[in-house]
Amino acid sequence: MGSQAAIRVVLGSVILSLGLQFLIASVLGTGQEGTLAQALGVYIASFGVFIGGLAFGFFQQDQIRADTWSFPWLRSLAYALLIATLSGGIFVLSGPTGSSSLLRMVLVQNIVFVPSLISAVLGCLLVRYAAQRWWSGVCLGLSLLVFFLLLATWASFSISYDPKIVQAGIVLSAIVAFSVSGFVTAAWLRRVAFAECTMIAVIFGLGLAMLSSTYGVETLKTFNIPKEQILVLLAVVPSLIALCFLSVGASIGFLLAGSGAVDTGFAYELLVGRRFLRSQFKVKDVLMFLGLAGIGYILLQLVRRLISKKTKQRGSTKNAVGSIMLISVSGVALGVMALVVVLSVMTGFEEDLKEKILGAHSHIVVQKKGDDFIEYAEVEKKLQSLDGVYTVASFVMGEGMISSDGGLSGVLVKGLDPDSEAHVDLRKNMERGSLDYLTRPEKIPSFRTFWPTGGNSNTSTAAKLPGEPVDSVVSEKRRTKKLPGVVIGRELARTLRVDVGSIVSLVSPTSEEIGPTGPQPKLRRFKVAGIFFSGMYEYDSKFAYLEMKRAQRFLGLRKKASGVELRVREINNTGMVVETVKRKLGGHPYGVKDWREMNKELFSALLLEKLAMFIVLIFIVLVASFNIVSTLVMIVLERGREIAILKSMGASQSSIMKIFVVQGLIVGVGGAVLGLAVGVTTCWLIENYGLKLDKDIFYIDQLPVVMDWLEITIIGVSAIIVTYLATIYPAMAAAALKPVEGLRGE
Amino acid sequence: MSDALIQIRDLKKSYWLDEREIEVLRGLELDIHEGERISITGASGSGKSTFLHVLGTLDTPSAGQILFKGEDVFHYNSSGLAAFRNRTIGFCFQFHHLMPEFSALENVMMPALIQRRSNSEAEESARRMLDKVGLSHRVDHRPGELSGGEQQRVAIARAVVLQPKLLLADEPTGNLDEKSASGIHALLDEMSAETGLTIVLVTHSSKLAEHMPRRLVMEQGRLVESK
User: Fold this and answer.
1) Which residues contact A580 (CB under 8 A, 6 or more apart)?
2) Considering CB atoms only, which of A67, A644, A653 is closest to B79?
3) Closest CA of chain A from B95, distance in Å
4) Residue A695: which residues within 8 A CB-CB, separation 6 or more?
5) For residue range B82-127, what is the model confidence (pLDDT) as tens digits?
6) How far is the C-alpha of A258 from the C-alpha of A735, rounded, in Å?
7) Greatest mean pLDDT range, A65-79, A86-100, A113-127, A596-610
């Protein structure tokens, strides 16, 4: 009778709230864009849904028994989903039609979904824990969360002013805050408190979305996505992350303190858990896998087991459980291995890119607004003494065109002081010629004599050809002796078909020279003093270096600099130096940027790619963890009798839970460790024995691999967290088994 | 108030089966004194086992109270109940319910391990108890390698290893031959005499029932003294 009444009430409230929403949205919603009235309509309707959810929970009474762990999760979700879908659909049908109606439907769904889920959960909670402390649990958890988050933010800001460290600090402490709040809530309520955690997470997500919609408008605008979508993302993603860590904390809290006193022992649980996993899977085996680059070994074991008909005393299902466990282990291991290898290769590419960018550019650039940077020498002097700064050098930069007999190309002309320590990397990158020729152009060897003769020590045959008398070369030499030098990249040299000693012409479009027809471009002849190769196509084809004074003259920037370049001792710590430079120079007319900021798009694209890759690959682990769930559920079903016996001997719920969490963790940790080992070994092999790449395509001759230990730790930890989360449901199911049910049915 | 160890007051238990309520225990009343040995007989399905499970707090009653030393045990929460079972009750089932992956010794050690006693302490008391039931030579055998009688001895050893106040036995000799069965009876007698253990035993066998000083019969969901 109860469930029928519940259906009736729920349906009634759904229809009521939808009708309300329909009415308000269609009567008041006039504009093309979502107006205040529409939003109001949605919110009022959501309120109706909210009441419906409460009623839903109330009429689920017969489904919710306080003595068991059952909670109508699926129904609550289905309820919320149903209402969100229906209302979204009706909204689209009824509301003002626009091009973005589909998008709007999604939005409405999201907006309605969350309140309906909250209300459904709230309703169920109200009924289930009417006499218990659920409300105070939620309050406790939320206030703890807020407290810890504020504390963490404050602490992160006071530790450092490097934005990266602050960000990392906040993220890390948010994770700690979630876990601790979950832990305390569960320990206090003496149950896993999933429902409470969901409430806390959802409220947290909504709060965050609301806060950022109020205070973070400027930041939101910088994204190129509609604000609403970001808000929905902000409500959903942090909620999920929060829920994840709250559940981890809560389950650990229940495991350790669920019986009212802190009980950290798990010796016998480990013993029982391992026996349940069935011997096939011993610690010794795990160690052996590690020694033998394991996945192959596991497969071998599997095949052997499938072929072998010997079951000894073990039942066949138990063997199956063992095999499935092995499959789970290798699934987790495979995912972790893929993550390690792929991310290491991506880091490798990134590091390679970084190295090349830094090889061609400085670490920090100070620029001044306007084009009157005359006092660059003083600025240089000021910065020279700063902590962490290695070298300081000023430069000028401008656009131009370069041409030779063989070709034509646009270039960035950069003037620098070749003697400065600041250009060590450029000096290192020189393939032919020398950076020193910029100041002493008379030393540049002439084009013909420079060419290596390829082992032939005689004068080249070309020189002896008739029609090219030697003295003409000599006179040409004399004429060009005074020409200043220019250093260009390998790709540019290839385009222009020039080599060291060749004559090229540089054209500056911005010049003060006035010809008969008005301002006319300035054309100067230069001699190629050297060719560099940085490994970045963009640099090798775009840059032309001149001596500072000559560049100033050529670009029409007499006595002015475009900026001052700094090199620091630690390239990963530029944030600190940027701050000190900013303080030293006192801000305004000067802008300070480090290499990360200058190449922001590139590195943020790389980071995004990496994140996407991580998410895709963690799905492998996720799938493997579902394998763990199903195996553990099988074990729980199979071991109902033993669970009952253990309970009759006085094992508490948290104790039984520990047994199954331990089993899941053996698989998860085993798989993670195995995957890490195999992944790191693979990376090591690639690093040391190399994997050749086509240099013409990749501009790099072998697959770069850089193992970032922080990344590897994150991979390992997240794999273990995912598998740990996978154990919670089966473990709770085991703990909730009634002893009588296990003992009956013989 | 009587000074009984356990007072059972108006105990009711019913199941729901397809919207139909099946009353198993209908207002059962019983006082059990310390050191008593009680047998309960009755027709199949009369609720003997259900009663035993409720008495052992493995199942919750629909109504009524079980007072242990004057305290209502169902007021404890689940972990409190678990601790109560661990300390005060020993179970011994018809199908012995040993854990097949564990040796006899490990099976007997289990209750002490659950109580978080140290491994060596648990092993010592388990060895002593196995010695007492005459199985000191088979401690490392798994249940599958023991005979039915031996298995039941291990189960009894496990039930009493923590010196509980109350031993609940459900057909402990149900599937044993006569010789093994009488061995088990003798063992139970001995235990009771030695430690003043209170025993409640559910059985079909009238022979075993006669062995017990106090005999009860389950009738209509209530317990009556047998003549």
Assistant:
1) A386, A387, A388
2) A653
3) 8
4) A701
5) 888 888 888 887 766 788 778 888 888 888 888 887 888 888 888 8
6) 12
7) A596-610
Interchain CB contact of B67 with A (< 8 Å): no
Q: What is the pLDDT of residue A190?
A: 77
* pLDDT tens, residue order, chain B (227 aa): 457 778 888 878 887 776 777 788 787 778 888 878 888 887 777 777 888 888 888 888 888 888 888 778 777 777 788 888 888 888 887 766 788 778 888 888 888 888 887 888 888 888 888 887 777 787 788 887 888 778 888 888 888 888 788 888 887 777 777 777 777 777 777 777 777 788 888 887 777 777 778 888 887 777 777 76
Read off the pLDDT of residues A273-307 as tens digits, 9 standing for 90 and up: 777 776 444 555 555 555 555 566 666 666 666 66
Report the domain count for chain B: 1
Put simply, whether B110 touches A (Cβ < 8 Å) is yes
Pick among B79, B102, B120 to test the A interface (most A CBs inside 10 A): B79
Residue B198 lies in a domain: yes
Out of A272, A648, A653, the one facing B78 most closely (by C-beta) is A653
> What are the phi and psi torsion angles at B27 (to 5°)?
70, 55
CA A162, A164, A169: angle at the middle one, nearest 5?
Answer: 100
**Which ipTM did the prediction report?**
0.89
Residue B1 is assigned to a structural domain of this protein:
no
- Chain A nearest-CA residue for B57: A648
From A265, A275, A650, residue closest to B82, measured CB to CB: A650
Considering the domain boundaries, does residue B10 fall inside one? yes
B174 touches A at CB < 8 Å: no
8 Å CB contact of A263 and B116: yes
User: What is the residue type of B77?
Assistant: N
Per the structure, the complete domain to which residue B111 belongs is given by 6-225
Q: In chain B, what residues touch A642 (CB-CB under 8 Å)?
A: 99
Spatial separation of the C-alpha atoms in residues A389 and A286, rounded to whole Å = 49
Contact B114 A268 (CB under 8 A): yes
Q: Nearest CA of chain B to the CA of A674: how many Å?
A: 27
Are the beta carbons of B78 and A275 separated by less than 8 Å?
no
Q: How far apart are CA A732 and CA A728, in angstroms?
A: 6
Strands, E assignment, A361-480: 364-368, 389-403, 408-416, 430-433
Which of A255, A743, A744 should one mutate to test binding to chain B, selecting the residue with the greatest count of B CBs within 10 A? A743
Residue B187 in any domain: the answer is yes
Reported as type and span, the H/E element at residue A600 is helix A600-638
Contact A94, A29 (CB under 8 A): no
Cα A664–Cα A667–Cα A672 angle in degrees, nearest 5: 120
- Alpha helices by DSSP H, listed for A458-587, are 470-480, 490-496, 537-542, 548-554, 574-585
Query: How far is it, in rounded angstroms, from Cα A64 to Cα A189?
Result: 18
Residue whose structure tokens are 């096939």: A280
Distance of CA A27 to the CA centre of its chain: 45
Please report, for the domain that includes residue B40, its CATH number. 3.40.50.300
Task: Single out the residue of B180, B197, B222, B175 nearest to residue B40, CA to CA.
Answer: B222
Q: How many CB atoms lie within 10 A of CB A451?
A: 14
Could you give the CA distance from residue A346 to residue A703 in angstroms, rounded to a whole number?
A: 10
| Chain B residues close to A653, C-beta within 8 Å | 78-79, 82
A685's CB contacts (< 8 A; 6+ apart) are none
Specify burial of residue A470 (Cβ count, 10 A radius: 0-12, 13-18, 19+).
exposed
**How near does any CA of chain A get to the CA of B122, in Å?**
11
Tokens of A583: 């303080």
**Is B85 within 8 Å of A279 when comparing Cβ atoms?**
no
